[in-house]
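Please think about what follows:
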Amino acid sequence: MKKIIYVLIILFTLVGVCGCNNSPTSSTSITITDQANRVVTLQKPATRIVSAYYSSTTLCLALGLKDNLVAIEQKANTRKLYQEACSELLDLPGVSTKKDINVELTLNQNPDLVILPLSLKNSAESFTQVGVAVIVVNPESSELIAEAITIIGKATNKEKEALAFNNYNASKIAEIEDIMANIENRPTVYLSSSSSYFSTCPSGYYQTELIYLAGGISVSKDVEGSGWQIVNAEQLLSWNPQYFLYVCDAAYTKEDILNDQTINSLDAVKNNLYRFPSLLENWDANNASSTLGVLWLASLLHEDLYSKSKFMDECRYFYKTFFNLDVTEEMLGI
């Protein structure tokens, strides 16, 4: 079913989600429906872009729009991917967080397109009322990531690049789904957040989907909530996951988990405690490299079905193709 959805997503985004280049206003204008269901019209492809969201910045980079970015999100100097693949981004103005955007500083960059996360959609009018186009993105699932990069590609005349990126991701996910199709007993996985190892992903989060795609099942798959959810030691012991994963930008260490006497009796803590890669960027998150997170976890949970060496071949291909970056196991922290 998921494979069919991926094929349909690519076809749909090509012929429907972004409209077409013909509009009543101009034969060269572009009409797009963004991920907040807003209809946006650009008179020509955007060339000066402000990306107010880390996920959309990585999608722009994957499309080859590095030189078109004139401002990005704050804390760019913490992004190892930027340091390695496009250090010039570190000199751009940081105009936003996921909760706020500096409208004046953004407009000072003379953008013709601002890309906002869904959390900042209420800021869109501040730009549209002065004639600056705004696209709102919400890449919170595999399908929405594919849709987001198609929308950005349409707005920037990078449709071929967007199609190539989506085709790659769809083919890799389909490959993993074929491999995992006949698994009878999926290993159980606990994934903790960056803030606390007593915080985990709820049912609607991309991370829950990622774990399933990789051939596992999240122990927190039935937990409801709009943010990372706090759990206690008793709940963790009750779940008794087979694997315990913590994200690469965690505010705690592996030793903190190992030394916590309330949970270190878990077999997963003793035998299957891993940091979710990579040091370059978070593969568990909803950014351009999220498919690599699926492939890495598949190689961890089912090495007999999908080897680490095959996974590394895909890593090298992905970063060289979409970011012109040669990566090593050391760089990725594998």
